[in-house]
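Need residues for this backbone.
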């Protein structure tokens, strides 16, 4: 779930919760206030009526009592019933239509020493507040007025409906505002998130344009500075890496030069012998010319491959056929292989082309092959294999040397680390960087019987 949705839902939850809390608080306050007012009104009504009928009770004048009660019932719509007791504490008169209830005197009974009593009664007609007052202090006659709480119930219903309506309206309006404001608030954050993704993909030097003057604006400025500094650092690293690559290439070229000289010497010897014979006998047969042309083409082919490897130092992606590249690397190193009596075993599986820089991959594989040759000064078997694995083209270079000592296994990819007296310490570091540039992996396994380097290049860079 997106952040702006979470913020919006949180705001909606807060609005609804506040509406419910305010509703309950308002309901409690209104109920308390209305019941207090109803009690005060009932007491006032009972006192006035008791004063009015006091003499009539003493005289047993039922007519005047009825008239007084009738006036109250006409004026006060909340009165449910009225009943009066006589000097003996018996029912003197009442307003019940079907006779007085048998337990009427127990509804709100209070001692003769009390002047009034209020009791909330739960009846089949709802809650009724019975207000009882003693007409004469220290005597039995009492006046009871039952006041309905229907008005409170109706008022509460109106308040409830009003609160529900207001809550719905406020929730809808608040939801729209919350979703809009949260989307507006989190929009710069999403822009920053996309910017960090660009940085993670190596797109340094870009800037994000957020003009807010709050913390998000400060954060965007920090990211812009970071992007600028990373771009400068990458350019410096690229320059250093190119220098390292050139240094290692010169080292590899020096190693290959001996083989190239040996390969060129053979056709040159053939040409020299023929021309020495031509000096003594200035005539060449067709077969002699064919030998000269073949030797010349052989030297030209050798020099072309050598120069192609020597001149390529830019990063250019193209379709690279790994198996063909491996064969060319073995051909480049064939003098070193032959000179050390090394047997080459190629186990190449069918591979699709990979998007890579041909010269760099050739450099990486050549470095691994030359390292393997150097690891077998007394000869052995060099195994170079290729296969598909989890969307990668995997090249394995295995030697039969003495293996890599355990105490330096963590250092072999470090720049300028070498155990050779004439080494640069850049070979495996260059391989590691080339593989990293292609989003690939380089790993090795080593024991006393030899070392295997595994180079993985993704099929789609």
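Answer:
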């Amino acid at each position: 779930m997106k952040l702006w949705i979470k913020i919006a839902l949180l705001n909606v939850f807060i609005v609804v919760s506040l509406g419910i809390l305010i509703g309950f608080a308002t309901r409690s306050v209104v109920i308390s206030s209305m019941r207090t007012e109803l009690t005060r009104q009932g007491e006032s009504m009972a006192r006035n009526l008791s004063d009015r009928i006091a003499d009539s009770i003493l005289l047993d004048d039922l007519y005047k009592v009825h008239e007084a009660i009738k006036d109250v019932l006409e004026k006060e719509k909340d009165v449910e019933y009225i009943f009066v007791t006589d000097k003996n504490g018996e029912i003197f008169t009442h307003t019940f239509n079907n006779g007085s209830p048998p337990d009427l005197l127990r509804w709100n009974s209070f001692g003769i020493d009390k002047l009034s009593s209020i009791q909330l009664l739960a009846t089949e007609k709802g809650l009724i507040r019975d207000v009882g007052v003693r007409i004469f202090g220290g005597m039995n006659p009492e006046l009871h007025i039952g006041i309905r709480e229907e008005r409170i119930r109706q008022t509460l219903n109106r308040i409830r409906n009003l609160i529900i309506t207001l809550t719905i309206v406020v929730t809808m309006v608040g939801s729209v505002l919350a979703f809009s404001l949260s989307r507006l608030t989190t929009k710069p954050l999403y822009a920053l998130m996309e910017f960090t993704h660009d940085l993670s993909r190596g797109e340094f030097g870009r800037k994000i344009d957020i003009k807010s003057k709050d913390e998000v604006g400060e954060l965007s400025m920090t990211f812009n500075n970071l992007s600028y500094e990373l771009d400068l650092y990458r350019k410096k690293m690229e320059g250093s890496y190119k220098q390292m690559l050139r240094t290692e290439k010169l080292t590899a070229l020096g190693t290959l030069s001996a083989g190239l000289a040996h390969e060129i010497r053979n056709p040159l010897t053939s040409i020299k012998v023929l021309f020495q014979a031509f000096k003594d006998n200035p005539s060449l047969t067709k077969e002699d010319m064919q030998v000269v042309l073949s030797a010349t083409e052989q030297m030209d082919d050798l020099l072309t491959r050598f120069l192609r490897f020597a001149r390529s130092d830019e990063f250019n992606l193209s379709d690279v056929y790994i198996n063909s590249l491996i064969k060319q690397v073995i051909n480049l190193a064939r003098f070193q292989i032959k000179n050390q009596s090394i047997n080459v075993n190629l186990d190449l599986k069918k591979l699709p082309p990979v998007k890579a820089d041909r010269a760099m991959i050739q450099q990486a594989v050549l470095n691994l092959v030359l390292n393997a040759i150097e690891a077998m000064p007394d000869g052995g078997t060099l195994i170079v294999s290729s296969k598909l694995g989890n969307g990668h083209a995997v090249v394995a270079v295995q030697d039969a040397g003495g293996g890599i000592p355990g105490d330096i296994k963590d250092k072999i990819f470090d720049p300028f680390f070498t155990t050779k007296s004439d080494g640069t310490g850049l070979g495996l570091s260059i391989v590691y960087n080339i593989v990293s540039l292609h989003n690939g992996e380089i790993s090795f396994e080593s024991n006393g019987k030899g070392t295997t380097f595994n180079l993985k290049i993704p099929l789609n860079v």
